[in-house]
Amino acid sequence: MVSDPPHPLKGRRFRCPDTGLASVYTAQLLHTLGGLIGDPPPPSTPLDAALDWTRSGLMHLTGDPSGPPQQGPAALPTTARGALDAFRLVAGSDILAGCSGASLLSERAALLGLTRQGQVSANGSCRLLPAKDGWVALNLARAEDRDLLPALFETEQRVLSQDEISDHVSRLSAEELVNRGRLMGLPVALVESTIRTGGAWCRLVECGPSVPVPRPPGQSALVVDLSSLWAGPLASHLLQQAGARVIKVESSSRPDGARAGARAFFDLLNCGKESVSLDLTSTKGRQQLRSLLSHADIVIEASRPRALAQMDIDAGALVKSTPGRVWVSITGVKSTPGRVWVSITGYGRGEPESHWVAWGDDAAVAAGAFGGTADAPVFCGDALADPLTGLHAAVAALAFWQGGESVLLDLSLREVTAHALDFAPHSPRGSVFRQADGWYMTVEGHTAAVVKPEERTAQNPAATLGAQTRGRMCAASGASSGRSDRTFRAVPGKTSWMRGAGPYCPASTTITCTFLHWPQRRAPFGAARQRSPTKRNWRRSLPGPAVAGCAAPATTHRSPGT
Predict the structure, then answer these.
(1) Which residues lie closer than 8 Å to 353 by C-beta, 6 or more apart?
(2) How far out from the chain centre does Cα 15 lie?
């Protein structure tokens, strides 16, 4: 762990918007990254936190299904509002205009029609169960997790009903159950009645050389997103909204699990991203992945370090290696200045936490984010740790990239949630009552309607799995060889494109190369070279696309997104 981390926003001055208590969190977040606050945040009161709960949609997801909606702990919606405002200030534009960061915490529930279920998570996969001496959260989101239950409970019974699971849990110590489950790779957590305090929301694992001049707001980055589900895709979605070009990389055998869920939610977070699908079980697929990563400005991944190490991609080890290593440029930290690797984990990259599995619901509970009481807890929101971490990851990634820093950043679901809980932890509590038109909450003499989760929809469908694989890998192979004119191995008559992928292609240029219909598929190298587009054929347009000009008749097919 780097002891003296750089401050990527050092020297930049920001003026926080007049958003009450959220502006205080915005200022604190920017200050941790080295930013200067030009004017002090406007006056605010803890009442803002309580009212944010009513406006966020989270209260409808917190509490028993037969009872009233509940206010959750601390000021979690306020921190989400402040984080999105911080991202807007760093980006220099009004990203998601008209949208509150607090509403991002509940938008999945709006699209999926989820509601509160008390001690069952909103999506139904995680349960709060009483053990012999405390409560645990057991998340069985994957079919293979259920196969491990007999070993967890030391029973020969293969199929366990929910009542049987609850019975087994009640006989065991909570800590013993959690420790055993984590060793087996199960997402299980203690219900922490004490909020963790003093933790860092973002940790700098490794730091390399920086670019001579920081990048100004508005310059776009190439983002390779290896993550899935919610936290990582939300971070890359925000970066894309800020002008970044995002390549979503998925395993052809195990694509993003969100594809199998509600299409509206997957489209929301992934529309406009290029989709590359690779066989990561093969040598070729792993080489292709390394080629993509070597050109990325920002890498977002949400795997345990062990999972990437099995593909010979260990971000920590690569960052420390000498510049002569072939794969050093994967993270860009040592060999290429100014690249950012963002690692999103459940509990962090340290030991033994790096081996623990976590999802949004159980990680939030582990941080102390739950409703009810410690003796009768209920879930708060919908996988709350995921969108909170995604928001903060976007702020960190953009700030460090603009600052020209080469870093490996570690953000964990638990620590980000704990950091948010530590902000205004003693917010006033309101009283909820029902009227004919819905639920209301009264707090310190103010009454506010309890708003349901708000739906935000995608403008276009997300790309189908692997839609841009051929074009992106052609561009990557051309860039890696350093030859920009004849390294495109595309089918004749098709078009491939790239940005910043060769000596004739600066980062701000998009080049479209037209390949001709040749009468012979395997022409001699000399003849093919005479007919192929060369660097003298390129026509550039900044920042728009350019098409290579050729005298012979050609058929051009633009890849999606060009």
Answers:
(1) 345, 346, 347, 412
(2) 26
Q: How far apart are CA 420 and CA 290, in angstroms?
A: 35
User: Residues 353, 338: contact at Cβ < 8 Å?
Assistant: no
pTM of the model: 0.82
CA nearest neighbour of 207 among 331, 117, 106, 105: 331
The string of DSSP codes covering 51-71 is HHHHHHS-GGGSS-TTS----
Q: Contacts for 524-530 with beta carbons within 8 Å, 24 or more apart?
A: 528/486, 529/486
Q: Are 105 and 58 in contact (CB under 8 A)?
A: yes
Burial of 231: CB neighbours in 10 Å, binned 0-12, 13-18, 19+: buried
Lowest mean pLDDT segment, chosen from 28-42, 129-143, 502-516? 502-516
What Å distances lie between residue 128 and 150, 200, 268, 336, CA to CA? Answer: 19, 27, 30, 46
CA distances from 383 to 246, 363, 371, 380 (A): 24, 8, 13, 8
Nearest to 548 by CA among 484, 500, 503: 484
- The number of residues making up the chain comes to 562
Which has the closest alpha carbon to 271: 259, 261, 283? 259
401 three-class SS: helix
Q: Do the Cβ atoms of 334 and 160 come closer than 8 Å?
A: no
pLDDT score recorded for residue 469: 92
Please tell me the least confidently modeled range out of 204-213, 361-370, 416-425, 513-522. Answer: 513-522
The whole-angstrom separation of Cα 380 and Cα 118 is 9
- For residue 537, the model assigns a pLDDT of 38
Helices (H), 113-200: 143-147, 149-153, 162-170, 174-183
Strands of the sheet with 222-225, listed across from one edge: 203-208, 406-412, 340-345, 298-301, 222-225, 245-251, 274-278
pLDDT of 533 reads: 40
Angle between helices 413-421 and 385-402 (to 10 degrees): 100
Kind of pairing between the strands at 510-514 and 545-547: parallel
pLDDT digits (tens, 9 = 90+) for 35-71: 999 877 777 778 999 999 999 999 999 999 999 999 9
Read off the amino acid at residue 135: W
